[in-house]
Amino acid sequence: MDLMPTASEEAFRSAARAWLAVNVPDQPRPTEVSAAAAYDVAWQRKLFDHGWAGVSWPKEHGGLGLSLTEQVVWFEESTRARAPQPGANFIGLSHAGPTLIALASEEQKAHHLPRILRADSIWCQGFSEPNAGSDLAGLRTRAVVDGNELVVTGQKVWTSFAVHAQYQELLVRTSSEGDKHRGISWVIGDMRLPGIEIRPIVTMDQMAHFCEVFYNDVRIPIENVVGGLNNGWAVALANLGFERATALTAAQIELAQQVEDLIMLARETTDASGRALIEDDDIRRCLAQCRADVMALRAMTYGIVSRLARVPIPGPEGSMVRLYFTQLVQRVQRLAMDVIADGALDLDFKGTEGRDWVRNFLLSFKDTISGGTKDIQRNIIAGRILGLPRS
Ligand SMILES: Cc1cc2nc3c(=O)[nH]c(=O)nc-3n(C[C@H](O)[C@H](O)[C@H](O)COP(=O)(O)OP(=O)(O)OC[C@H]3O[C@@H](n4cnc5c(N)ncnc54)[C@H](O)[C@@H]3O)c2cc1C
Predict the structure, then answer these.
(1) For the Acyl-CoA oxidase/dehydrogenase middle domain, which residue ranges apply (predicted)?
(2) pLDDT of residue 346
(3) Strands 225-226 and 142-146
């Protein structure tokens, strides 16, 4: 991959930087879930209305039709300007949308892609079930074909933002014959259909972004199936490929900024003797290691982007970058607790740069679970990339 920017990429960077400099909201994202979702929608709509949404999405569906490199440039400039992250729009923008672009029919794309880009529809993911998380292909939510409809019965769990979502990337079992990976279908599920019951799960921090979703004879038009009936495992793999390989690109770029902020915080924070923490050998060494590691992460990110220019649907290689990234996030957040020391007891502690260090530390525990646990990522790397035997 040639890392030297082209003239048009440089021009795009300058234009993005200039627009972001005057348009990033002054107000931080609220912590309450509904207010946070409204904030995310408002930001995404502003991007759309000003022509910045979907940098690498097709022009005919509301995007800018530019390259993935320009998409990365946009993320870099957004990070630099401390612009909001996609938040509640994450699933639609980062993996439902790319999956539809790759595998949906023209009608499905024309209907859904502009709505995702304009934040007219928030998406959620209905994959995990009480007995099918890591063993996703063991899912039991059933869909029976009845004329032009699928009749869905079952339960999903850990569905992020289900209460705010209009649509869902939904995996259902449409056949029980043969291998469990066959007989799964990937369906566009309308969350407002009769028979859907959403129960928010209130977590320890009193937030309710997780939900249980129950399906009681929910009738979904069969035309909502993407990639063909009983062919949903292939669509799910593409979907998970995007979720693991590219969905976190913005967050990976943002992590480099967090490390720089942490270095600044270590310069500003003093210990009991009045010495700046950056003078502490252990802290300095860990900070230097994190800075080196985010550079390695950047190289992996560019590698993925470069590969996607040739192979449009990511394969198992996304598990390598996801595993490295999620463990690095946890290391950076843990180090932040050492730097802020007593501040770690205050949930609302913010450094001068306004970061929620304590909340981010607590949230980082989820990173090696969501999108497939770190054990599952290791299994994928071992089996599908290294070709190692199963036992
Ligand atoms: C923040 C967050 C957001 C999420 N959002 C969504 C969402 O929007 N939609 C959705 O569908 N799901 C979502 N999930 C669920 C997530 O995908 C599952 O939690 C994850 O796949 C693990 O499944 P599980 O919780 O059932 O754990 P289990 O599969 O029961 O795993 C339990 C433990 O056993 C280990 N384990 C299991 N199988 C193996 C194996 N074969 N080899 C080695 N170790 C193994 C796991 O690594 C884990 O440590 C979210 C999870 C989190 C944390």
Answers:
(1) 124-218
(2) 87
(3) unpaired
